[in-house]
Amino acid sequence: MQIIYSNEHNIQIKMKQSYRSDRKTVKRTKIFCWAIFTLSTLSILNTSCKKFVQVPTPITSLNSANVYKSDATASAVLTGIYTKISSTGVSSGLSSTSVYCGLSADEFTLYNPASEPGYVPFYQNSLTNANLAGGDFWVLYQTLYIANSAVEGLTNNNSLTPAVDQQLLGEAKFIRAFCYFYLVNLYGDVPLITGTDYKSNELMSRTPKALVYQQIITDLKEAQSLLSDQYLDGTLLNPTSERVRPTKWAATALLARTYLYTGDWADAVTQANLVIGNSNTYSLSALNSVYLKNSSEAIWELQPVNSRQNTPDGLFFILPISGPNLNKPIYLNSDLINSFESGDQRLTNWVGKVTATNGGVSTNYYYPYKYKVNVPGAPVTEYEIVLRLAEQFLIRAEAEAQGTGTGTSGAVNDLNVVRNRAGLPNYAGPLDKASLLTAILHERQIELFSEWGHRWLDLKRTGNVDAVMSIATPKKGGSWQTNKQLYPLPQADLQNDHNLTQNMGY
């Protein structure tokens, strides 16, 4: 039976924190404060539902020093991070990277924009520094604070089982890299905070993007050497089939992506090779089973923390038979639907359709249908995939096309792996570099649509954002300006920290 993120036992950890954010009011405190984080602990069940490990009922609170005195409480800190990522910020359905970045790009259409003031600034690329939603992802600094605290508490720790300490330290560094990857891609230069000293943190200025990437790469390399190459259960001592705790391969996959984003083609290929070469663990799944929990394609997944739902994407994206409405106002852009090639089985497997009639006029609405379950209380059969194997083939294809030795043949071979899985023939287009890169970017658009903001980030990193959005934004009722490719920093933070500066144009 699956690992469960249980709320049965909670640990309240008093920490000195410099950042306090929520999705309605994003602000940064300048005073010394105590923030109480409630971190869900992890209960592990086997097939007979017997708990392998259970954290005993805790005392009222533990200070951050005492947390790292036992395997169970230390593990609960990292489990709390996964719970936080699953329920707020980057993957929380209504305000996730999949939603906001998809709206910002050319993936989604917003139903009745006049009734959706919270989504319109993303959809029409009209965010201002007054839009609090632009700072929704700033909540990642909360997660970073806990990760930084974990790194400090686990480094040179002699109280934990060595294997547990090593795994948790690797997880903390992986999570820190993961958070900064999204922060730097959504906001550009951001404060680079790797400690928990609130006096230093509250006065941080923005760090150049290149230096943030250096920290991401450093953390991921260290995570590679610390993390297990097997998926571990809640004890962090036994292997499991659940792919919800990061492994060496998750760090490697994110490192391959990071190298691609920074233009280090050779290292991107090297890291993608390692993941793709681990065929005993990873293989491409059939299209209709990619998003099932623990699929062979999944490198890292998030486990549902709400017992009444499978995934936020399934709950939010699947439209009712009556079509989009105020509760489900987002559907796929017709330009994206028309971009699927004839015979592409991803269109029939990963895209749903409803036909709604209004005033005697019938309209087809298409929606992401990668995750099939949206019935509250249904058995959990799907986990939210964060990293998967198909992306690694496309990373390697793009880096090879940029010229790393294997060149055209290697890039085409990897492109065909993804195309063939979708029922498409081998790529038969021009083999010059520009044409091949265009084909790979198109394949990423189709393969990774509605996942973790890939399309928005791809348009920006490849320099195509102005060309695409100058056409797409007017169709959405807005006017494209190149500075809108970065989101604004929260205004409250700028007011509280005069060392911070706003992104250009806000």
Automatic annotation (TrEMBL):
Keywords: Cell outer membrane, Membrane, Signal. Pfam families: SusD-like_3, SusD_RagB. The keyword Oxidoreductase does not apply. SUPFAM superfamilies: TPR-like (SSF48452). Residues 340-506 form the RagB/SusD domain. Gene3D superfamilies: 1.25.40.390. CDD domains: SusD. GO terms for cellular component: cell outer membrane. InterPro entries: SusD-like_N, SusD_RagB_dom, TPR-like_helical_dom_sf. It is found in: Cell outer membrane. It comes from the Bacteria. The keyword Iron does not apply. Residues 136-260 form the SusD-like N-terminal domain. Belongs to the SusD family. This is RagB/SusD family nutrient uptake outer membrane protein. It comes from Mucilaginibacter segetis.
